[in-house]
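Hey all, quick one. A colleague (J.T.) asked me to put the adenosine-5'-triphosphate job into the tracker so the inputs and the structure tokens live in one place instead of scattered across chat threads. No bug as far as I know, just bookkeeping. Sequence used:
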Amino acid sequence: MQAASPGTASSGTIVTIGEILVEIMAETRGDGFREPLALRGPFPSGAPAIFIDQVARLDAAAGMIACVGDDDFGRLNVERLRRDGVDVRAIRIDPEQATGSAFVRYREDGERDFVFNIRHSASGRTRIDAAAGLLLQGCRHLHIMGSSLFSAGLIEAARQAAAQVRTRGGTVSFDPNVRKEMLRIPEMRAALEAMLHACDIFMPSGPELTLLTAAPDEAGAIAEILSLGVAEIVVKRGAGGASHYDRDGARHMAAFRVAELDPTGAGDCFGATFVTCRLQGMSVPDSLRYASASGARAVGVRGPMEGACSFAELDAFIIDHRGVDDIGDTA
Ligand code: ATP
Ligand code: MG
């Protein structure tokens, strides 16, 4: 595990819990997988894994609670996370199950079709065991992805982890990151709602903002979520940029202009960078600028985790992409 970077206000590990998988992508655009295709992969992936890799690349102390199979897909992921500085001691190797996988193909309109094997993969066996408990003892911040709440076991593990971190005075961030396939799981909505109530920073993609609120519109949803005690809301809007809301008002940060090669992982890199910057005591505008650079950089790189990068790379990216509309206070 790497030491926190100079200037870090307080110590402790940023931890995430959830799925690790490989992504295998079709080389051509089109509809789904109903014919033989040229494929490229395996790439290390899984939304929480991408998130925590990006945290580590920023030289913040980072750890992950997860489960992989005793296979090359698992080794590929664990070795990447370890190399990038993530504490992998709470990633269990389960010899009974294979590591999760996702096949992805882009359609002509930029939408994606997936074939997932996650729920019945080793990821489904993620639990708070002794190694996970130890990691949580030194945790100052826990990040949860909604995509990780795919079974009763994972929901319980995430709930336990959040409760443990909050009891010790740590904070929690939550990205609903909902895949349409998952809304069919009955416990899912209750688990997402519980996580919204338990978090300090909420980071939905645009339409996810109103997914869990009684209010049907953005303004109403923001007021409702802030009234729950959530301190900060960051709405990710793809090439439309990102918006930040807290009790003091709203700010919008335009996206950097880049050619979109592969949007998978942009939201995870954005969220990881925002949380890491805020935990290091950076202002909201500075944190948004770094997070936006991180998201934009990720869409320009093929492969879900391949866009994760250091502060030096983000600084260079920001210098190269000057001219982005600056932060505007709208409230
Ligand atoms: P995913 O779950 O697919 O990883 P997301 O919906 O959680 O993505 P996005 O809104 O797609 O997150 O991306 C997060 C941030 O990354 C955006 O708010 C923006 O700052 C940046 N970003 C995303 N797409 C682009 C793009 N095409 N050009 C420039 N910046 C982008
Ligand atoms: Mg997302």
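Adding what we noticed when we looked at it: The mean pLDDT is 92. Residues 298 and 307 are 4 Å apart (CA to CA).
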